[in-house]
Design brief:
The structure is a homodimer. Chain A is an alpha/beta fold. Chain A has 2 domains: about 260 residues, 3-Layer(aba) Sandwich (Carbamate kinase); about 150 residues, VC0802-like (2-Layer Sandwich), CATH 3.30.2130. Chain A is about 35% helix and about 25% strand. Chain A has 13 helices and 20 strands. An 8-stranded mixed β-sheet of chain A has the order 3-6-2-1-9-11-12-10, with helices on both faces. A 4-stranded antiparallel β-sheet of chain A has the order 13-18-20-19, sandwiched between helices. In chain A, strand 19 and strand 20 form a beta hairpin. The N terminus of chain A is likely disordered.
């Protein structure tokens, strides 16, 4: 892995700084946020800021909207929920102005940040950046309310949970920033979950693709859409902590700040695997002795999809008699009950002996762009698990990821063995 | 006083309905508000709605802004505080849509309602009503966030406390409504304060000018600016209760709903006095044995004005020796300390024997457009008070009002005597 040079931070002249809800939780946190902004400005950076609502505020507003109970009317929910970022952006602007740092809160409609009309999960279609750029040229820091935009119909939209990450990356792209700094409550992306693997190491660099695979595996540091967007526009994103005292020291010598998510070319990776991810929230469903006939899989998985149930892994064994098969698939635990109802509802058209399910499973994944150029990574993973006596119940693979389903009790043993075997505990 | 005909309500085809914070306090209140709107729509009315923030919400937001402590930065405070109306407008819109009544929340920037840039106390300069009118033509009820607008610089402004009344009247004028209905927690304007005068009668009609005099006297039912605006555009405003069960009954026969504030011509008034108002919040300052020389009054009251202290009544007695005088004036109790400091600060340039003050005073006023055509109203008032042995400490008069300063202990006796003498207790 390449070493970050002490001058590295200097090459980022124009930056977007994004602060999440926990970073804006109360006035003391807001002061800390202001410290970060003040430091970057005094280092001569050109800065635009994106903020989330103060922690808990979005949930409070959702609760208020839910009292009315008209959850279908997402357009009005967006008006309610977006007020959280409106307030936090003005609070931060006031704080900066009090320190004689010119700043101004900017709402989605003031940019404007244009989205489609999918209220509650709108996609950004256009950002008119001239207003922001004029402010920055005048030395006024724009404090942009994340998560919100306006539709072509001039109505307020929101981007969905975690949408402020996407706002930050989109703003960074539109003003042609050199870096999008995402300040959060963790100090970077780790080789694995430090609660399970105490030796887990912070990654200095990770590729967009690895980050996407990690996010969907439960390492929820960045909203998936924001990573996709950053990848499309090749916008480097740095994950760093608002609260870690070390950061202020590290900034001086430019080393070891957060994790930079960037394109693969910049990562001169000599490791095949860069991270171990896991998920405990899946459940397994097995249909035993399913009558095997053409179209049966399409019927089952089509019905599940129609009910909005996402299926992750699917394993179908070849039947011994050519007429029957055992079909296993996994869904999110929260969807298990609904999935079983769907299968039971198909009892007229499909024949089977027994429907079984289990929540005592876990998914463990190895992720790394290095896999592309290294053969036999999956086989090596299976043998490491076999050595520890861990049975594999299902397997899925992608270009840069291998996931296996194992018994829940084995998760820590499996992750430690893999972490160590791929030398992720070595700095 | 003219009788309201049973068909009177029918003549108002296009109306603005404004609901204050107590009317929007919680979801049950919002349901009540929706009932009122539903009733008017089913009566064939064309309706636009203006709402305040849910009761307590504006204070909560001010508290949040005050934590930062940058109270000078009113532009960002406006962004914070205006979010209260944003939320309540969307809550009401959701509630109506749930009842299959098409409605849409509208923020100041969406109208747009243009104001000057005096953040925190902005004045409305223009309302583009075409968007609202198009919605109403389509059968969609606009639910307008009161209290807020945008400046020419495209920034959020607020109109000051109680500004939603002004929004409602301004919207009514801009869409050429027939009536602006202000729903509040009282059922109208009374001849006097019912807590002091149990016989106080609800007025059916009151003139704009009387309403202005009453408002400045402490009958704070409508924001003063909203009455001034209604008077300028001759827009009738009705004060009525959101909660009074009677209203729903009264609507059927069109009688006795609230109080209509309208122009003088419509009021065929046979009573000279239409209301008795009072204020307990004033304090009296007396400068004894003040050296009387030219320019002394200008110096004293100029200095008070420079410090932002409003002086209400001024009484100066002619001095016995031609060289000294006693000067008495009243200020708001909250300004008393500052006023005394101003006078004491002038001790180099003005000479006096003693500075005295008292909070044990009250102001009682009789108000009525009928005074214009009736001589001797003030003299009659003084004799009524004299009969009750109440000493008058100071007097001010306007065309439609006479105010006297009396001892605080006498306030109830004075008000009852006047209320009865002017036959306000007779329906």
């Amino acid at each position: 892995m390449i070493e970050l040079k002490s001058t590295m931070d200097q090459k980022y002249k124009k930056i977007v700084m994004k602060f999440g809800g926990t970073s804006m939780a109360d006035i003391d946190c807001v002061y800390k946020v202001a410290d970060h902004i003040e430091r970057e400005l005094s280092n001569g950076k050109l800065v635009a800021v994106v903020v989330s609502a103060m922690a808990g505020e979005t949930d409070r507003l959702i609760g208020l909207a839910d009292q009315v109970g008209n959850i279908e009317l997402q357009s009005e929910r967006d008006v309610i929920i977006s007020s959280g970022e409106q307030v936090s952006s003005a609070i931060l602007s006031m704080t900066l102005n009090k320190r004689n740092i010119p700043a101004r809160s900017i709402q989605g409609w003031q940019i404007p940040l244009i989205t489609n009309s999918m209220h509650g999960s709108a996609r950004i279609s256009d950002i008119k950046s001239s207003h922001l750029e004029k402010l920055m040229e005048k030395g006024i820091v724009p404090i942009i309310a994340g998560f919100q935009g306006i539709s072509e119909e001039n109505r307020v939209t929101t981007l969905g949970r975690g949408g402020s990450d996407t706002t930050a990356v989109a703003i960074a792209c539109s003003i042609d920033a050199d870096l999008c700094d995402i300040y959060t409550d963790v100090d970077g992306v780790y080789t694995s979950d430090p609660r399970i693997i105490p030796d887990a190491q912070k990654l200095k660099l990770v590729s967009f693709e690895e980050m996407l695979e990690m996010a969907s595996q439960g390492a929820k540091v960045l909203q998936t859409r924001s990573v996709e967007l950053a990848m499309s526009y090749n916008m480097p994103v740095r994950v760093r902590s608002t609260f870690s005292e070390n950061d202020f020291e590290n900034v001086k010598n430019g080393t070891n700040i957060g994790t930079i998510v960037t394109n693969e070319e910049k990562i001169l990776e000599d490791k095949v695997v860069s991270g171990i991810a896991y998920s405990k929230s899946e459940a397994k469903v097995t249909i035993q002795k399913l009558e095997d006939k053409p179209g049966i899989a399409a019927e089952i998985f089509g019905s599940l999809a129609n009910d909005g149930i996402n299926v992750d892994m699917i394993v179908q064994n070849i039947s011994a008699d050519g007429k029957h098969t055992d079909l296993t698939f996994t869904v999110q635990e929260t969807d298990l009950r609904a999935a079983k109802l769907v299968i039971e509802g198909l009892s007229d058209s499909i024949k089977y002996a027994k429907l079984e399910d289990s929540k005592d499973i876990a998914k463990v994944s190895i992720i790394g762009v290095g896999m592309r150029s290294h053969a036999g990574v999956a086989a090596q993973m299976f043998s490491i698990l076999a050595e520890k006596g861990i049975n594999i119940q299902a397997i899925t693979t992608s270009e840069i990821k291998v996931s296996v389903l194992i018994e829940l009790d084995h998760i820590e043993k499996a992750m430690r063995a893999l972490h160590s075997a791929y030398e992720l505990d070595q700095n």
